[in-house]
Design a protein that fits this description.
- The chain is of the alpha/beta class and about 150 residues long.
- It has a single domain (about 5-150), classed as MTH777-like (Rossmann fold).
- Helices cover about 45% and strands about 20% of the residues.
- The chain is built from 6 helices and 6 strands.
- It has a 6-stranded parallel beta sheet with strand order 3-2-1-4-5-6, sandwiched between helices.
- α4 (about 90-100) links the parallel β4 (about 80-85) and β5 (about 105-110).
- α1 runs parallel beside α6.
């Protein structure tokens, strides 16, 4: 998968499983040879830097707003985007990315409102849904299945 550019687009870090799943997915994608970028707001980036201070799991972290601006201005694009969401704001960012990018979209939906968010999505994407807040295992297992398909 060398050269395939993947964006992990993270929302507000209020739900505990987001950081662990982002670290896990970034590492798994990197090990499979993907070129992975993780984008988020300042709070997300700080959490990731503290959790992965040696940059072992996440090789590239960038500001989400700047990344979206670069995609809009056609300075950057991705082949695959995993949009993490647990609220309407996360869904709005994913819908924006869907409209401005050529990336294949994967919506990683989690938290107490996961089912309502899943139903509200009106853009083309693969939905990976777990109603979990604290335990990342179910979401991890679903992402593992998606990774098997992507790596084929």
């Amino acid at each position: 998968m060398t050269g395939v550019k993947v964006l992990l687009m993270l929302g507000c870090p209020e739900v505990p499983i987001q950081t662990s799943i982002a670290l896990y997915l970034s590492h798994k994608l990197n090990k499979s040879g993907f070129d992975v970028t993780v984008a988020g707001n300042d709070a997300v980036i700080k959490l990731l830097k503290v959790s992965d201070f040696d940059g072992y799991y996440v090789k590239r972290m960038v500001n989400l707003d700047k990344t979206l601006e670069d995609v809009i201005e056609k300075r950057l694009d991705f082949d695959i985007c995993f949009a993490f969401m647990h609220n309407d704001s996360g869904m709005t960012f994913a819908a924006t990315m869907s409209a401005i990018s050529q990336a294949k979209m994967y919506s990683v939906i989690f938290g107490r409102n996961a089912e309502a968010l899943e139903e509200a999505i009106e853009f083309d994407c693969v939905k990976i849904v777990a109603k979990d807040v604290h335990n990342p295992t179910r979401l991890k297992n679903k992402l593992d299945k998606v990774m098997e398909e992507i790596v084929k």
